[in-house]
């Protein structure tokens, strides 16, 4: 409920006169057509009436700024800190965060972590699974391996964003290259885990063969003897001749 118009100088003078004759706040309210609470507030502090309350802070991000903030959060998913700087909003970053948290259709959630699969990739995976279900492959005899790159400029799969509940969730595709990183190679099977190899520099077919010779074959021979089945993905360095 909003407050009424401020008391004019004439009305304030009338209130002071009525109070000199000991009229009650209710009676003055009837005579002047103003609320009893307004008259009481003025009489308690006539000199301070109309001055701003130093303990009451105005809302900085309101109206158009608040709508712009919410709209951009819905569109980009950017953090409150980023939006606050990009939009040049006044007030604190915490104020912008509170405005976004108060919005009923926005939630700060983690992006879905998934590899960037094309239609051909999905079909190949389905065909592979169907084939091995039909043939009854003995998985205990297979050694699996892969490389993994850890990005030093921030994790791929743990980025949060402002999600608009009226829209589909965002998907964050994992990166294959780019940014400061460290790459490792490892293998596993029903027999256990291989030693982890830390790979240096850009990997090519020659370096990949060295990795297999130094890490895969010792693991395979120790657990399966001279012959074993080894599985790898279709990366270019795996297929090079």
TrEMBL record:
InterPro entries: RNaseH_sf, Transposase_5. It comes from the Eukaryota. GO terms for molecular function: nucleic acid binding. This is Tc3 transposase DNA binding domain-containing protein.
């Amino acid at each position: 409920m909003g407050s009424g118009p401020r008391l004019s100088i004439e009305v304030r003078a009338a209130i002071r006169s009525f109070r000199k004759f000991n009229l009650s706040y209710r009676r003055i309210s009837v005579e002047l057509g103003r609320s009893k609470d307004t008259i009481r507030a003025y009489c308690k502090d006539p000199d301070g009436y109309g001055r701003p309350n130093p303990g009451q802070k105005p809302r900085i991000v309101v109206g158009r700024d608040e709508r712009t903030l919410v709209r951009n959060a819905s569109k980009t998913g950017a953090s409150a800190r980023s939006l606050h700087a990009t939009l040049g909003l006044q007030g604190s970053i915490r104020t912008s965060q509170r405005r976004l948290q108060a919005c009923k259709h926005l939630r700060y959630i983690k992006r879905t972590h998934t590899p960037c699969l094309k239609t051909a990739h999905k079909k190949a995976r389905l065909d592979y699974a169907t084939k091995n279900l039909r043939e009854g492959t003995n998985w205990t005899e297979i050694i699996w391996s892969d490389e993994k790159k850890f990005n030093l400029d921030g994790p791929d799969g743990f980025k949060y964003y402002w999600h608009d509940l009226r829209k589909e969730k965002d998907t964050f595709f994992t990166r294959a290259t780019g940014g400061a990183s460290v790459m490792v190679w490892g293998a596993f099977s029903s027999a256990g885990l291989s030693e982890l190899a830390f790979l240096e520099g850009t990997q090519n077919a020659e370096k990949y063969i060295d990795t297999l010779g130094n890490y895969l074959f010792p693991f395979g021979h120790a657990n399966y003897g001279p012959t074993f089945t080894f599985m790898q993905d279709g990366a270019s360095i795996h297929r090079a001749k």
